[in-house]
């Protein structure tokens, strides 16, 4: 039935606008200048000749991407639609030197230029900052990060290399910016995109997107509304819960943007958005069970509900633009997972034990940024501003058994399946001033310097209440101790254990971790000709200090194990980059190259207590990452485009003490968690169908080399090889499409993962998960129908 439905949708698309569609390889220069920077004059290029200049705001001002002295990849809405990019995964595929570590939907960690100790990043701030407009959404610790819908965006920019001066903490190795579209003050407009796909033989995918733009008062007031809904049936069977296609995703939401421009100088934009992303189970697999199989006693859930409210005020002075952006965000999440893999198969007592964590967290974030960006015609250009962030995260840690296991063991007395409940919260604050100054000695040579200085703090608290249940009749054994002991009587039957002692947690105020140090950037740019820009850049990056939620807590399994330390201080990173950006033959050939060396010290790393798998953050030694990246686009003939990118990276631990090795499992010379070689090839061919219709056929192939999942040894027991250590598979993922554009209508037939590659692209470093492997989504065929894209 689902195959027939998909075939019917494809037939409707073909009948509506013919076989296939895609955009021209040329970028559209009819876009309005980005909203967060003053308009700049850009050299006009004949649209028939080749690629157009693309404006980006990576430096907080609108500049040609060819003139920005850092490595930037940028994607406009037309390109996202053509390539079927709806979230983080597609952006990573198209960006050299970047890998998305994705255990499951809503659990996303980018790695850029090899700066990662593993792909999980538990208890650590992400090394790549992710922004939705002015709001940083990448966070700290065991947390979900909603994979935001990318329909009706102005642009997505991925900045590689540390961006500490303009984007603050978390931009240790890069920053990704999702810039939503502002309302059009003059024209009524609508756009829509519908996507039907079939994964495997019976998993149906539905995606619906709609935008409406309404000018209320010409040149003064307009409203833009966006809505979206996704229902994507899963493709994994959970043999523990008995649910087929368990990892189904339901994601919906929208945003409403109002733009008021009472004068030529003043504009006020109000934005409200909401997204509810609800995967019904994890996408991690257990290959030993067979293809597309996983196991857990209850569904592993990583859900998120994110609400964003923003007010941005822009005022144009004669010499500069003043921008004030105020954002308030609420993010509610669930982090539910089966921890049964923590203990050896069968448990210490010869039988499996039920052990899981249901954690619920609530983030409340306020961000204020005010900046002044020059619009001078002279040699000086400047950006100056201030930034403030306050985040409070409340987390409820509920450790569980399950009712069937409790009944089988004769465990009684618990009010429900939870034997331990602890309620905590954490407050993070960042206050900083930043600025960049550029001086142009001539149109061919200019220098830029930047600095950010501020104070970052983090403090954890334990709330009063909750409990740890124990059994007084058995020397106050807690649930884990009793379950692992497998208490039995003389006849071999389990002894009844009654948990009647409920010890509440007392309020605890944790140590306040603070950090303050300047972040620097300096670059020199030289244009030997109008078609070539070269640059050399030095920059620094940092992450906020980390406080461990369970600082000072002993193991409930083994009192002699490590006491959880207070936390980890900021790491220190210095980056040296040289690059060149060239454009020849009227834009028919573009080549961007960059080479870099990164010195990373006082590395924030994840460690684990052996007895109970409690995670905590600490600092260890140093590493060096070296590599290069190449991006190239060629238009050999009209309507023919060839795109290519490749990245090489060599990132290794270079300094490590014996104590640091023992607590982290790292070893000197160990290669960090990033592929040595990766690249992508994109080619498209357009041709006329007559009657105003134009078709395009396209193929996109991505290659990613294998890389380490984590440090090789067991934290806390460095003489033992980590049982979960491994290398991801080397793989090639091929997507293809065939589509048509006629007027404002587009239609496209597509196939993703054309060769149904089942490579392991992620390995979870923690033993507590039985299903620990992430694989490519199976072959998916489908059809997209768009209007006004």
Automatic annotation (TrEMBL):
Membrane topology note: Multi-pass membrane protein
Matching InterPro entries: Beta-barrel_TonB, Beta-barrel_TonB_sf, Plug_dom, TonB-dep_rcpt-like
Lineage of producing organism: Bacteria, Pseudomonadati, Pseudomonadota, Alphaproteobacteria, Sphingomonadales
Main location: membrane
Pfam family, one: TonB_dep_Rec_b-barrel
Family statement: Belongs to the TonB-dependent receptor family.
Signal peptide limits: 1-20
Protein's UniProt keywords contain Ion transport: yes
Domain TonB-dependent receptor-like beta-barrel: 278-753
Residue ranges with Basic and acidic residues bias: 290-300
Protein name: TonB-dependent receptor
């Amino acid at each position: 039935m689902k195959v027939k439905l998909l075939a019917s949708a494809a037939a409707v698309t073909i009948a509506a606008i013919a076989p296939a569609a895609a955009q021209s390889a040329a970028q559209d220069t009819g876009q309005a200048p980005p909203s967060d920077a003053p308009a700049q004059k850009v050299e006009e290029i004949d649209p028939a000749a080749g690629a157009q200049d693309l404006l980006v705001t990576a430096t907080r001002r609108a500049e040609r991407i060819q003139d920005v002295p850092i490595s930037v990849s940028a994607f406009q809405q037309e390109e996202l639609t053509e390539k079927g990019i709806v979230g983080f995964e597609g952006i990573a595929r198209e960006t050299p030197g970047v890998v998305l570590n994705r255990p499951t939907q809503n659990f996303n960690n980018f790695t850029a230029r090899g700066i990662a100790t593993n792909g999980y990043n538990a208890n650590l701030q992400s090394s790549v900052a992710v922004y939705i407009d002015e709001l940083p959404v990448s966070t700290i610790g065991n947390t979900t990060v909603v994979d935001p819908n990318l329909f009706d965006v102005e642009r997505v920019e991925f900045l590689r290399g540390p961006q500490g001066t303009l984007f603050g903490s978390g931009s240790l190795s890069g920053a990704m910016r999702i810039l939503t579209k502002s309302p059009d003050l003059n024209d009524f407009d609508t756009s829509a995109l519908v996507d039907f796909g079939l994964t495997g033989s019976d998993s149906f995918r539905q995606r619906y997107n709609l935008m409406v733009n309404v000018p209320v008062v010409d040149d003064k007031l307009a409203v833009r509304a966006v809505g979206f809904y996704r229902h994507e049936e899963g493709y994994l069977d959970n043999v523990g819960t008995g649910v087929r296609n368990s990892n189904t995703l339901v994601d919906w939401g929208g945003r409403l943007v109002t733009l008021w421009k009472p004068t030529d100088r003043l504009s006020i934009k109000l934005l409200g958005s909401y997204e509810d992303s609800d995967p019904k189970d994890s996408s991690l697999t257990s290959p030993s069970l067979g293809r597309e199989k996983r196991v857990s006693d209850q569904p592993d859930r990583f859900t998120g509900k994110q609400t964003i409210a923003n007010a941005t005020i822009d005022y144009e002075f004669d010499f500069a633009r003043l921008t004030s952006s105020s954002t308030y965000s609420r993010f509610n999440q669930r982090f539910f997972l089966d921890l049964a893999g923590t203990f050896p198969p069968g448990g210490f007592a010869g039988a499996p034990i039920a052990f899981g964590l249901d954690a619920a967290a609530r983030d409340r974030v306020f961000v204020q940024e005010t900046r002044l960006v020059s619009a001078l015609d002279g040699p000086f250009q400047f950006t100056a501003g201030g930034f403030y962030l306050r985040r409070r995260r409340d987390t409820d840690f509920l450790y569980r058994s399950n009712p069937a296991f409790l009944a089988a063991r004769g465990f009684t007395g618990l009010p429900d399946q939870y034997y331990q409940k602890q309620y905590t919260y954490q407050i993070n604050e960042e206050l900083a001033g930043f600025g960049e100054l550029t001086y142009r000695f001539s149109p061919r040579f200019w220098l830029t310097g930047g600095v950010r200085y501020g104070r970052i703090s983090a403090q954890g608290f334990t709330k009063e209440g909750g409990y740890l249940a124990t059994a007084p009749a058995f020397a106050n054994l807690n649930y884990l101790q009793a379950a692992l002991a497998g208490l039995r009587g003389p006849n071999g039957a389990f002894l009844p254990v009654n948990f009647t002692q409920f010890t509440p947690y007392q309020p605890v105020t944790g140590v306040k971790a603070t950090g303050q140090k300047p972040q620097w950037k300096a670059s020199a740019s030289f244009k030997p000709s109008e078609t070539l820009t070269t640059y050399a850049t030095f920059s620094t990056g940092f992450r906020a200090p980390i406080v461990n939620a369970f600082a000072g807590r002993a193991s409930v399994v083994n009192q002699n194990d490590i006491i959880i330390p207070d936390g980890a201080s900021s790491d220190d990173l210095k980056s040296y980059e040289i690059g060149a950006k060239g454009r020849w033959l009227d834009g028919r050939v573009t080549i961007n190259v960059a080479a870099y060396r990164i010195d990373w010290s006082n590395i924030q790393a994840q460690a684990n207590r052996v007895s109970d798998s409690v995670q905590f953050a600490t600092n260890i030694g140093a590493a060096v990452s070296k590599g290069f990246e190449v991006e190239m686009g060629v238009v050999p003939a009209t309507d023919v485009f060839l795109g290519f990118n490749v990245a090489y990276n060599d990132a290794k631990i270079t300094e490590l003490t014996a104590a640091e090795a023992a607590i982290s499992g790292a070893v000197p010379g160990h290669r960090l968690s990033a592929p040595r070689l990766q690249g992508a090839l994109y080619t498209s061919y357009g041709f006329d169908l007559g009657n105003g219709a134009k078709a395009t056929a396209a193929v996109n192939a991505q290659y990613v080399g294998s890389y380490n999942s984590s440090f090789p040894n067991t934290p806390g027991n460095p003489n033992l090889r980590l049982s979960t250590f491994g290398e991801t598979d080397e793989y090639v993922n091929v997507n293809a499409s065939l589509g048509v554009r006629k007027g404002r209508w587009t239609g496209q037939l597509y196939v993703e993962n054309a060769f149904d590659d089942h490579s392991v692209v992620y390995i979870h470093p923690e033993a507590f998960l039985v299903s620990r492997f992430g694989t490519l989504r199976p072959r998916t065929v489908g059809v997209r129908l768009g209007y006004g894209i």
